[in-house]
Structure formats: C-alpha cells, structure tokens
Amino acid sequence: MPHASDTRQSIIDAVLRIIGQDGVAAVTNRRIAKEAGVSLGSVTYHFATQHELLRESLLHFVAEETRHFTGLADACTDERFDIGQAAEVVAQVAGGTAFDSRHIAPFELYVQAGRDERLRAAAAECFAAYDLLAARILTRLGVPDPERLAGAAVALVFGQQLRRLATGAPAEDLVDALLVLTRLTPTQTA
User: Fold this and answer.
1) What is the DSSP letter of 117?
2) Is a pLDDT exceeding 70 seen at residue 189?
3) How confident is the model at residue 79 (pLDDT cuts 50, 70, 90)?
4) InterPro entries in the record, alphabetically (predicted)?
5) Would you say 188 and 144 are in contact if contact means Cβ atoms under 8 Å apart?
6) pLDDT band for position 63 (cuts 50, 70, 90)
C-alpha cells in the first residue's frame, strides 16, 4: 500500500503533466486520479480545492527549480569561470533540444500566477533563484552591475524559451543571444 506522501507526490506529478499537456483548464479531479493512478477520493482527501492543487504543484516545481538553480549558481564561484563555462550553464538552463510537458507546465503555472495572486509568492521564490544564478554568472563574466541586470537576463531566457516553445527554435539560439549580450558594455548599449 502506498504511503500518503507517495500518493500526494503522485497527484502533484500528475497535475504538472496535465498542465504541461493541456493547460490549467484541463486539471480536473477525475483526470488527476486517472493520470496519478489513484482513487478520486485520494485526490480530494489530499487537496481540498483546485487552488490548493495548483499552489502545491507550483511550490513543488519551485522547490525543484530553486534547488537546481541554486546548485548551478554555487558552481559559478570558481575564479576561472569563463565565457565557455557560462555557455555550458546557459545550455543547461535552456533544457536540451525538445520541449515536453515538464518544460511547458511552468509557463502555464506562471501565467496562472498572473491571474491568481495567491500563487504569486511561490512564483516570486522561483524567479529569485533564477535571478541569483544570473547575477552569479554575470559577476563571474565581469559584467558591470550584475544584480541590476540579472532580472533582464532572466527575462531574456524566459522570452527565448517561450519563443522556442512557440516556434521550435533550437536551444543554441538562446545561448548565442546571451553570449552576445554579455559582451556588451553599458557604453555600447547607449
């Protein structure tokens, strides 16, 4: 018999898959139960409301992303960190060559956070981890005022990822765009 935390995690994983496949509107208790391989009663037992399901799914995603991006940021402390290493980190962030439901779900959840302010704190936590990684990379590359520019770098990554999602553009386009921007100084952009 599965442990309650395993059932809860199966439900959260199912919610993220459903969101990635068909969007937030497709998240129903029946579909979650089927996708997770649990009873309908298990879904309602573990999550009383749809908001709670979405919030916990976003928080789970945020915890994983924060752990991953904080680890990448911690790896950017080597004094010998160069543009090649930055390109490798950006390629890891870009997430490979194909978008699957796991890559699409966060965009859906962030859009939902725009609609539901109760989800915004969880989304802000994840963006703080992205900003930390961006600031560390920019610092190591000698980019002036890295903390101020980190949010813009993260926005570029998200925009490029959204473009990849919508057009099928390769991950290399994102890496190339970021590398070009890191070579610009404030006087070159004025």
Assistant:
1) G
2) no
3) low
4) Homeodomain-like_sf, HTH-type_TetR-like_transc_reg, HTH_TetR, TetR_C_31
5) no
6) confident
Where do we find the tokens 């959204």?
162
Q: How many angstroms separate the CA atoms of 48 and 57, rounded?
A: 14
Identify the three-state secondary structure at position 164: helix
Render the burial of 104-124: b for 16+ CB within 10 Å, e for the rest.
Answer: bbbbbbbebbeeeeebeebbe
Query: Is pLDDT above 70 for 113?
Result: yes
Q: State the virtual CA torsion across 135, 141, 142, 144 in degrees, nearest 10.
A: -40
Give, in order, the Cα–Cα distances in Å from 66 to each of 73, 84, 94, 129, 142: 10, 23, 15, 5, 24
What tokens does 41 get? 């009663």
> 80: buried, middle or exposed (CB in 10 Å: 19+, 13-18, 0-12)?
exposed
Token digits for 157?
């990554």
Residue located via tokens 């009873």: 39
Cβ atoms of 61 and 38 within 8 Å: the answer is: no
Amino acid present at 8 = R
